[in-house]
Amino acid sequence: MATSVSASAFLGSWGSSMAGEDHTVLHAKAAAAHVRVARPIRSQPMMKNVNEGKGIFAPLVVVTRNIVGKKRFNQLRGKAIALHSQVITEFCKSIGADSKQRQGLIRLAKKNGERLGFLA
Asked: DSSP state, 20?
């Protein structure tokens, strides 16, 4: 007496006969019992220098930031970076370098500034 019973037929007929409830009611109860867990709140990613506190100029940069204040210091740093990028751009124009080479030089300047401690 081998009979094949599918899972949905088994749940429906067994659930109706044993618990006295319909399969759809059981499914609704199971869905209501499901608790959704929210993802933990992530803090804002901070851009940090991996060489922070390292480099020959790092102590000077930290002292200057503490004296001038963080907001003013970041303004001055932004102006210095912009001026340096302009110098690199003018240099590239004078030697006939294309924009890709100019971009590479600006990236190299940033890496050197990190290593020397200017971005501490």
From this structure: S
Residues 21, 66 within the same domain: no
Q: Is 50 part of a structural domain of the chain?
A: no
Specify whether 33 is located in the same domain as 76: no
Give the predicted TM-score (pTM) of the model: 0.53
98 Cβ neighbours under 8 A, 6+ residues apart: 92
Least confident of 3-17, 57-71, 104-118: 3-17
Q: How far apart are CA 120 and CA 65, in angstroms?
A: 10
Q: Could you tell me if residue 76 is inside a domain?
A: yes
Q: What is d(CA 91, CA 105) in angstroms, rounded to the nearest whole number? A: 10
Which domain covers residue 24, as residue numbers? 1-37
Give the residue carrying structure tokens 């220098």.
49
